[in-house]
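Re: that chain you flagged

S.,

Sorry for the slow reply, it's been a week of failed gels. I finally had a moment to sit down with the sequence you sent. For the record, here it is as I used it:
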Amino acid sequence: MTVERIVRIIAGFFIMLSLALAHFSGSADLAQPSW
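Prediction finished late last night. Pasting the structure tokens below so you have them in one place:
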């Protein structure tokens, strides 16, 4: 695996994690993304 692929996997994981947290925390306002 190349470093670029690892970075993309980690970035994708954090994006999915943030979306999951926003969903489980009562569907936080999508107009105000955490990032």
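What I noticed first: The two ends are 28 Å apart (CA to CA).

Talk soon,
D.
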